[in-house]
Specification:
alpha+beta; 5-stranded mixed β-sheet; about 30% helix
C-alpha cells in the first residue's frame, strides 16, 4: 500500500470506468485533476456528492480540471446508480466513475482505512496538477459529505500560487487580497506587483490578487 505525499507524482493506473477503459495520466493530459472516492454505490451521501459535482462540472472545466470518481463496485452497478442519480437529482453525469472491484486503485492511493472500515473506501480527495504531481489530499469519514465549494476554492489558490510569488491567507476566496512571498524583497515588489501592497509587518505584506 502506497503512502502518497504532497509533491509526489500521482500513481498512474489503467482501469475500467463508466466511460470505458482509461490510463489515468493519459486521460488527464494537460489538465488538472480531482480524484475522489466513495464508500459504495447506492449510498445517500455519495448520491448528493455526485449530483453536486455534476452541477459544478462547468466550474471545474473553467479551471482546466477533470473530475473522476471511484467506488469499489463494478461498471454495471455504477451505471444503474448513475441512472438513479440522474432521475432523482435532475442532472447529467458528465464525468467517469472508476470501477475498482479489485481495490487496486483504492490500495494504490491508500483510500481504505481499516480502523474506519476494512472493505470500503473513505471519502478521499486528491487534487493533481497538470504536472501530474499531488497538490492536495483531503480525507473525510464516510458519514460526512464533502464541501465542493472548498475544493474549487483550493484549486483557485493552487493555480494562482503556481503562477505568482504569493500565498493565500485564511478564508481567502477568488478576488481577495493575497500574501506576497517572504522571498520577495520590498524593493522588488513594485515590478512584480504593480497594483501596490500593504506592509503590515516585514513578513506580512498584502497585495491585490495579481491575475484579476
Amino acid at each position: 500500500m502506497a503512502t502518497i505525499r504532497l509533491g509526489d507524482i500521482a500513481p498512474d493506473f489503467t482501469t475500467n470506468t463508466t466511460q470505458g477503459q482509461i490510463s489515468f495520466h493519459e486521460w488527464l493530459g494537460d489538465s488538472w485533476g480531482v480524484l475522489f472516492s466513495h464508500p459504495s454505490d447506492f449510498t445517500p451521501v455519495c448520491t448528493t456528492e455526485l449530483d453536486t459535482v455534476a452541477n459544478y462540472y462547468t466550474q471545474f472545466e473553467k479551471r482546466n480540471t477533470k473530475v473522476i470518481a471511484l467506488s469499489v463496485d463494478g461498471v454495471e452497478s455504477h451505471l444503474k446508480w448513475i441512472k438513479d442519480i440522474e432521475e432523482t437529482q435532475n442532472v447529467t453525469l458528465q464525468y467517469p466513475i472508476i470501477a475498482d472491484e479489485s481495490k487496486k486503485v483504492a490500495d494504490l492511493y491508500d483510500m481504505i482505512h481499516p480502523n474506519a472500515d476494512n472493505t470500503l473506501t473513505v471519502r478521499s480527495v486528491f487534487i493533481i496538477g497538470a504536472d501530474k504531481k499531488v497538490k492536495l489530499i483531503l480525507t473525510y469519514p464516510a458519514s460526512t459529505g464533502r464541501n465542493f465549494d472548498e475544493i474549487l476554492r483550493v484549486i483557485d489558490s493552487l493555480q494562482l500560487t503556481a503562477d505568482y510569488s504569493v500565498a493565500t491567507p485564511a478564508n481567502w476566496k477568488d478576488g481577495d487580497d493575497v500574501v506576497i512571498s517572504p522571498s520577495i524583497k520590498d524593493e522588488d515588489i513594485p515590478a512584480k506587483f504593480p497594483k501596490g501592497f500593504n506592509r503590515i509587518k516585514y513578513y506580512l505584506r498584502m497585495t491585490p490578487q495579481p491575475n484579476k
